[in-house]
Write a structure and sequence with these properties.
This protein is an alpha/beta fold. The protein has 7 helices and 9 strands. The strands form 2 sheets. It has a 7-stranded mixed beta sheet, with helices on both faces. A two-stranded antiparallel sheet has the order 6-7. The radius of gyration is 16 Å and the shape is globular.
């Protein structure tokens, strides 16, 4: 990648708070990077969208929201709907780094997380977006046996310093307004991890080896 002090980074997520839960410590610890967060759901939810943009101010990031269906039933979206929603929201086609969901999600289970990850990888493969590296969140919850935790087997794993984690927790509980006993607050990971890819074929092969399909 280019000079790490000047990286352009897109974080592509499903919901307001995903960027903080799964990558907030990483964003806060790299204030010189040019962060742009695309949240693909809830743009018409006035309360959630306001909190999202307030969180971006703390994260020193720019961003935008879309309005993909996010009803509790989680009906599958049409194959190209995520791609068609995402592309107009990106301010450019090339980023030094793109960070997004894992194709198997971060916990059991949210369909939108999975669909967005697969769409990003497909767009990269089809050369509709360009990046030097793609990172996908690396978390697991033991099939709902515990709150999501960072996967220590991932190539990028970092335990957050206490002060950094507290800033992240503040955004979840104060900016987004989740109660201290909420799933979001209880989850807020104290370590962050990512799978790392430098080309789309490697990402696709990794998915196949893991028994996933896109």
């Amino acid at each position: 990648m280019n000079n790490e002090n000047q990286l352009s980074v897109a974080v592509i997520v499903a919901h307001p708070d995903d960027e903080t839960l799964w990558a907030g410590g990483t964003i806060l610890s790299h204030p010189m990077w040019k962060w742009f967060v695309v949240c693909l759901c809830r743009s018409t939810d006035q309360e959630r969208s306001e909190k999202f943009y307030n969180a971006l101010k703390i994260l020193n990031a720019e961003g935008i929201m879309g309005n993909l269906d996010d009803e509790p039933e989680q009906q599958p979206l049409a194959k190209n709907e995520v791609e068609q929603t995402l592309l107009p929201l990106l301010p450019r086609q090339y980023f030094d780094l793109i960070i997004t969901h894992n194709p198997s999600g971060e916990y059991t289970k949210h369909l939108r997380h999975e669909e967005i990850s697969k769409a990003v990888i497909e767009l990269w493969r089809a050369r509709k977006i360009f990046t030097a590296e793609l990172w996908t969140f690396a978390y697991e919850d033991g099939n709902r046996q515990y709150y999501p935790i960072a996967d220590k087997n991932a190539p990028l794993y970092a335990l957050l310093e206490t002060a950094l984690w507290q800033r992240k927790y503040y955004i979840i509980t104060e900016t987004f307004g989740f109660d201290n006993t909420s799933w979001e607050a209880e989850t807020t990971p104290k370590a962050e991890a990512f799978w790392k890819f430098t080309n789309a074929p490697d990402a696709e092969n990794w998915l196949k080896n893991k028994g996933k399909t896109i």
